[in-house]
Amino acid sequence: MTILSVKNLVKTYKRRKTRELLTAVDNVSMDIQNGEIFALLGPNGAGKTTTIKAICGLLLPDGGDITVMGKDVVKQRGVALHHISAVLEGNRNLYYRLTPVENIIYFCGIRGQKIKRNEVMTLLETFGIAEKANDLVQQLSRGMQQKAAIVNVLATRAEVLLLDEPTLGLDVTSAIELRKLMREIVSRHDRTILLSTHYMNLVEAVADRVAIMNNGKIVVCEKKEKLMKLFRARTYRIRLTEVSEGTMDMFSTLDPRDIHKENGFIDFTVDLRNQEVLFELVEIVRESRARIESIEQEQVNFERIFLKYINDH
Ligand SMILES: Nc1ncnc2c1ncn2[C@@H]1O[C@H](COP(=O)(O)OP(=O)(O)OP(=O)(O)O)[C@@H](O)[C@H]1O
Ligand SMILES: [Mg+2]
């Protein structure tokens, strides 16, 4: 079931000095399904935060429709936003002079939701920050603050959680813990997560689906596994022996990369877009009089997928 739907979202900003218009989000559409972790992946300035801010009603879109559980975020703001809770990037998502427990009670309170102290403690325990429950937020480390902010949105019963750059500024251990936490939130607490990030490894670790965004547009939106499979099938590492001076030049039409030469061997990687390219490769090897030592399918990492889409658009 679609829980959050974004249709043809447009948001433009006016540059302060020149009054020139900048289209930060350019006709973005996506349907997010109940119970999934959907990642918006894109470089700095792609429009991720703008999209998230429009979804949680902090920005008024210039065009398009956003609905959560069928309610329009602009026209039925009150009811729609009840289903959404967000942790924004860089913002102070919690009151620094309150404790995590007080924050949770406060934020639930303004939504008209009563939450018992022991319920709050159970949540904080689940996420390993119970011992900081009664310290002021300003005294917590960056990682703890981020966890507390996420527990805070989880405590509200909103079905859709928006997490903008949730692992920004976290050390490796905290970032890994946070990934686990996100998976738990969807499986045990029955929520849906839309997250934005520019970290490929976060996407690789947690996302069910991913939309790659660049220059305000979604350039691809696919199940993560499908994207990985697609690229795994395409990328080959080739090792040739008995090579001569000009061998590598003969392969230039295949756009080889990561070329490595050593003791009469040449290794390089090619993307085989289709069967034809494979035949072409074999043909060139034959002409070059080199010998194929090995052809192996490369493990893909998300970084390659990302760069490929970003550079092509
Ligand atoms: N308040 C604003 N006024 C003018 N331009 C803005 C404003 N906020 C964002 N922009 C511009 O809109 C574009 C998209 O910005 P946005 O913050 O949505 O990108 P992002 O994908 O979240 O980037 P990052 O990875 O750096 O967080 C950028 O070119 C940015 O400079
Ligand atoms: Mg951002």
Element layout with pairings:
Blueprint (H helix, E strand, L loop, with lengths): L1 E13 L6 E13 L3 E5 L6 H8 L7 E6 L2 E2 L4 H5 L2 E4 L12 H11 L6 H10 L15 H14 L4 E5 L7 H16 L4 E6 L2 H7 L2 E6 L2 E7 H11 E7 L5 H4 L6 E6 L2 E7 L3 H14 L2 E7 L4 H11 L1
Helix pairs in contact: 3-5, 5-6
Bound molecules: adenosine-5'-triphosphate (ATP) and magnesium ion.
Structure description:
The structure is a single chain. By secondary structure, this protein is an alpha/beta fold. The chain has 2 domains: 2-215, Rossmann fold; 229-312, Peptidase S8 propeptide/proteinase inhibitor I9 (Alpha-Beta Plaits). Helices cover 35% and strands 30% of the residues. It has a 6-stranded mixed sheet, sandwiched between helices. Helix 3 packs parallel to helix 5 (142-155) and helix 5 (142-155) runs parallel beside helix 6. The chain is elongated. It starts with a strand and ends with a helix. The protein binds adenosine-5'-triphosphate (ATP) and magnesium ion (MG). The site of magnesium ion has 5 residues, from helix 1.
What can be said about this structure in brief?
With 313 residues, this protein is an alpha/beta fold. The protein is built from 11 helices and 14 strands.
Series of secondary-structure elements, N-terminal to C-terminal: EEEHEEHEHHHEHEHEEHEHEEHEH
| Ligands, deduplicated | adenosine-5'-triphosphate, magnesium ion
Shape: elongated
User: What is the domain total for the residues?
Assistant: 2
Q: According to CATH, what is the topology of the largest domain?
A: Rossmann fold
Helix content: 25-40%
Output the strand order for the largest sheet. Answer: 6-7-8-3-9-10
Query: What is the CATH architecture assignment of the largest domain?
Result: 3-Layer(aba) Sandwich
